[in-house]
Amino acid sequence: MRVLAVFVAALAFVCVPTSQVWSSGPRQGQPAESEENGGRGGAQEDQRENAGVEDHNDPMPHLLWEKPVWCHENPNGGLDRIQCGGFDRGDPVCLVAPGRLLVRPFGGLERVQPCARHLDDMQYLALETEGYRMVPAIAEAPPGWYRDRHGRVYQVTFDLLNRFYLGGGWVGSAEMSEGSWTVDRGYVEMGFSGSFLSLSRRSRHTVTAVEGRLALADLETEGRLVAYDYSHLGIQPAFFIATFFGTPRRYDVFLDLGFGVRLFGVHLNPHHGTDLLWVEYGEAHGALDIWQSQDLYNHVRLAAGLGVEGLYGLGDVGFQGVRLAPGVQAEARFALDRAGHHYANGMGYWALPILLDEEHLGDLALRGGGEASYEVILFTIDNQPVSLHAGASLSYRDDLPVGVDPWEARFLAGLRFSLWAPPRVESQLPRPSVR
Which tens digits make up the pLDDT trace of 111-149? Predict the structure, then answer.
């Protein structure tokens, strides 16, 4: 608990500089609106109109990533990086940034654009002669990264749909019927997720693999080998409704359909049962996204499908059942900020397994529940984020042996260490071409 308190305190410290970077206006590593070139012809004049703009939350301006950079060797032997502009606005300015680190190890800069042109001393002096004001600045950084005044660059946005994570924490649960609580269980977890947005096909492919959680006290285990989901944002409406009360109006109805599959999920000792193993061999479902963000990252989705599963008794329990499991599910996924520091997820499900074994052929069982979780990035270690993850769930199932509580409420809180999470870069799907 002391470790968790330290990390929560770190959250208050981390949120201040993060909000400053992303509050408003163009930012380092983020696309800015293009400027129109002034009336001075030639490549050199075009470059001068492509200067970076100042970040008003930082006393020093930053060069822009998407604009060409000129380079010049200064009298001290170092390399300066230059972007010029503002001539058409009557305020010609050249932003001049050091091309090396200003603190140890005093080497060259990482993650910079190649020099579009190298200026000699005469060309550099000509800029001043023509009235350009030389302003100290900070070199450019890629989208999702930030460079400080010392030249050091670090990642500031994160896409947690693409990562491998390891985690651990505390999980408590309650057997609702008996009113008993289990609060002394630690857990460890791991998982991989990858998501790809296809702009041309207006679709997103998301894969999760080798996800699992193990409670250390009683070895309750949950996991899944692999799951895949496909979502799509259509262009043409499925149908439209026209009304004629007063002014005629048309309402387009879009059906953004997707699908998904899950393979080999397991849950050992569900609801604190002993020597019980639930296995989901496979499941396939169709889905309707009733709301999606433009990059298909956030969504609210309804799904219905059919799975094949089994519940087995281990040891002396002697209980088993194979069944078909039709079911429905509602799911919500949200990245709560542009930087990808806050995430919220929710899910509710209902299933009606049909037993297939001889003794219980055709019998029905019932399984349902819901869960919600929140994750916030606290800090990074070498650009690998450490996040606080908290969640709660409620589940019911009546297919367990006598003596196992059908209701269970669960609460968990822990830390996750994520590897290889790329920057969170918002993408807009292209508008369809008009022929």
Answer: 999 999 999 999 999 998 988 999 999 999 999 999 999
What integer pLDDT is reported at residue 426 of this predicted model? 80
pLDDT of residue 372: 98
Neighbours of 161 (CB within 10 A): 22
- Return the closest-CA partner of residue 9 out of 418, 417, 336, 379: 379
Can you give the pLDDT at residue 271? 86
In this model, does residue 7 exceed pLDDT 50?
no
Write the CB contacts of 16 (distance below 8 Å, at least 6 apart in sequence): none
Name the pLDDT band for 316 (thresholds 50, 70, 90).
Answer: low
Domains of the chain: 23-155 (no CATH), 163-419 (2.40.160)
8 Å CB contact between 395 and 366: no
Q: Tell me whether residue 69 is exposed, middle or buried, using C-beta atoms within 10 angstroms of its C-beta: 0 to 12, 13 to 18, 19 or more.
A: buried
Mean pLDDT over 20-25 rounds to 34
Residue 232: partners with Cβ closer than 8 Å, 6 or more residues away: 201, 202, 203, 204, 256, 257, 258, 289, 296
Q: How many CB atoms sit inside 10 A of residue 153's CB? A: 23
Measuring CA to CA, which residue among 202, 171, 246 is closest to residue 409?
171
pTM of the prediction? 0.82
- The answer to whether the beta carbons of residues 98 and 77 sit under 8 Å apart is no
Q: pLDDT at position 39, please?
A: 34
Question: Tens digit of pLDDT for each residue in 203-231?
Answer: 999 999 999 999 988 888 999 999 999 99
